[in-house]
Amino acid sequence: MANTATIEINGQKQEFPLIEGTEKEVAIDIKALRAATGGFITLDPGYKNTGSCESGITFLDGEKGILRYRGYTIEELAEKADFLEVAFLLIFGELPTKEQLDKFHEDIKKNSIVDEDVKKILDAFPKAAHPMGVLSSLTSALTAFNPSSVDVDSEEDMYNSVVRILGKFPVLVAWAMRKKSGMPLDYGDKNLGYVENILKMMFKKPNEEYVQNKILVDALDKLLILHADHEQNCSTSTVRIVGSSHAGLFASISAGISALWGPLHGGANQAVLEMLEAIKEDGGDTKKYMAKAKDKADPFRLMGFGHRVYKNFDPRAKIIKVAADEVLGDLGIEDPILNIAKGLEQEALNDDYFVKRKLYPNVDFYSGIIYRAMEIPTDMFTVMFALGRLPGWIAQWREMRLRKEPIGRPRQLYTGATKRAFVSINKR
Ligand code: ACO
């Protein structure tokens, strides 16, 4: 294979190096494009063809349906590892030894106290506030309560900021949910595993003992692993670009939460359930909604179907579909919403429109179903996604800072008015 690409503009040829990744993907290195061509830029809205960085964290091949964290397949990690092990792997690059994992968990627990004054900020939010907005604000507020900046040249400083956010974030998640339901705020239980503690912090009632359900703990652990990283998606790119200005970790994560909130990204799991509920209210006619999804004059899209990069079955969706069936079976749940979901899934998998466009159910289609079975309120679904994605955001932020990447600053092609004279207000 040639090791350069040639671009010819107005008869002038310029060569640009090709860079090969460890999985044989090839990129044209256009860092010198403007200088070499006298100001030409590339235009790629939505960045479908643009690599923003080199990264050693997550590999995915959307055509083949492959997802690996630091070289380990998502299938193996979901089956054999737990969420905290995966978090360590993503952030620090290697699977932890038992001692490293124990220390990591201990350090996270030591950092799981949130300043009591944060409760005053939480109190000021209306009960109806969406928990993603609350979580993004409280995460940003943590910056003010932990103002010391991170010295990225100090491994210790980096480590401390990582365990600090991994300790405090689940507390904020639980508080955002408890505030909405009027439940007292809680700090959880240091004797529990990371995921067990999250469930207890979310669901413990003040007047009864909380009993752990192993099925739910395992299902949530798996869900969090499946969501833990997904290379340069919208929220992760946001975290990296905000961090590239040397904004701190909490501020960068807070921006990532806002990016994740949108219905085309993390908000899709909430949108899936809302769609299923709307179909039920409308009589449960899945065929009618399939027709709407295919009608180009109708803005309706089947939420939970399709993916920007997976043009094959999302490997996470395969794992989670099995988990969803297990959870529903084990809990003995019969829910008309879930029957509608299964109906839509079957129809879409056998429908020409969806098959031709490779629109398969994505991870959010099934995660919403499991969260509903766990009695997690619908508007908390995207918050649960953020909880899972946290290690990925941290890993990407850390990698970006350690590689000393330049500030993110894209170019644009200006298409507005050319120079014109100002018209005073009484003459307009
Ligand atoms: N329902 C109906 N038609 C769809 C759907 C859908 N869910 N998704 C895509 N299409 C159609 C488009 O209309 C288009 O048709 P055309 O070729 O006839 O014009 C074709 O499939 C390609 O669609 P694009 O929007 O170009 O695909 P893109 O890769 O840009 O978008 C996206 C991917 C945004 C995820 C899209 O499939 C979608 O909106 N899905 C529903 C929302 C959703 O589930 N989002 C979650 C993503 S997963 C995550 O964030 C973890």
From TrEMBL:
Q: Which NCBIfam families match?
A: cit_synth_I (TIGR01798), PRK05614.1 (NF004126)
Q: Where are the transmembrane segments?
A: none
What is the name of the protein in this document? Citrate synthase
Question: What GO annotations for molecular function exist for this entry?
Answer: citrate synthase activity
* Catalytic reaction annotation: oxaloacetate + acetyl-CoA + H2O = citrate + CoA + H(+)
Q: What family is reported?
A: Belongs to the citrate synthase family.
Identify the pathway.
Carbohydrate metabolism; tricarboxylic acid cycle; isocitrate from oxaloacetate: step 1/2
Q: Does the keyword Acyltransferase apply?
A: yes
User: Known Pfam families for this protein?
Assistant: Citrate_synt
Question: What keywords are assigned to this protein?
Answer: Acyltransferase, Transferase, Tricarboxylic acid cycle
* KW Methyltransferase (keyword) present: no
